[in-house]
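pls ignore typos typing on phone
iron/sulfur cluster + seq
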Amino acid sequence: MLSEDIKDFGLDLGYSRVGITTADSFPSYIEELKARYEMYAWYIEGSFQPLKGAEPRIIMPSAKSIIVAVYDGSKESFPEKLVGKIGRLYQSRCYLAPRHRINGARRQLMRDFLERNGCEVAQRLVVPERLTAARAGIVTYGKNTFAFADGIGSFILMTAFIVDAKLKYDEPTIDVECPPKCTACIDACPTGALYEPLKMNPRRCIAYNSFMTQDSLPAGTTTDIPPEIRDKMGTWIHGCDICQEVCPRNQKRLKAKLPENEFLAKVAKDFELTKLLNLTDEFYTKRVQPLMYNYIREKKYFQRNAAIALGNTGDPTYITDLAKAMQDPDELVRGYSAWALGKIGGSQAKRILEASLARETAESARKEIEAALLTA
Ligand code: SF4
Ligand code: SF4
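k done
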């Protein structure tokens, strides 16, 4: 009875699917993460602590069930101006939403309901959500490593609640439901991050490079994005949707005529990469933070990503904006703007780079300018 009440409450809150599985550990997940430690050290050693989450009873010995809820992040259309720049799940503001935002409040309401019904709910324990949802019978896998909910697609967010109540478990659906010959996602991945079905190297993924390359993140992360990856980032500044966009399992939703989201439409109205590059406090507060509060902690990383995106357009009309960014107080912004100028090239870009080199004192920016001068 409680199991059905939980599901009904979740659906009433706006989740699209709710499933329940045991709180047993996830041995295959643990094995896979450990086997690919080099690729995942930043995640294993980071604040999410996934190896602990994969054995819920070590942290919470009374754990008996995991409730997983799927939120459909693609119920409304995405503004053209933001597509290809910000991943759809970030645009839908459902990922890592704080409690004072609607998606964080929904998570909190679900937790409150469970507690009101006598459940102890684990605090801060991050289970492997895709696998948990598959074990709870509400998603299947795609070869691109994403989870797909039937009738929705992969633009979904899964939220798990570990509780001490014994509930009615659903039939697992840990299957890959792709057409057998399809490799569209692997073929489309610009960086080769998807290197075989169900295997992704996050270090090569555009999404990882857009937001996990910050100071003070754990185990081997740096602010440096290898030039070879920068070249392939296109105009993505937060996330990357390419392997989901090409997927036949997402086409129905991507091609559907969906209602416009008024808030997104408003944010998108004056959203320009050049404004992100030479970022004012006002643009940051009104246009960046409402959508991208998830991972990037400092303005300079948005500016860096905007510089890469502008460089990748190859469009000389952006040289003036990049020249302005060469005066930015932050050497990271100057360095990546130099890269972008080198990528756009031409005599005007070269002159700006030479003038910048003459006054540049920061070692990292100097190196970027020198390298850019070789290609400009
Ligand atoms: S998100 Fe982008 S870079 Fe990452 S695996 Fe998918 S297509 Fe490749
Ligand atoms: S693109 Fe093809 S192989 Fe990749 S996840 Fe979609 S259906 Fe599966």
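The radius of gyration is 22 Å. The beta strands are 17-22, 65-72, 140-141, 147-148, 156-163, 194-196, 199-200. more later
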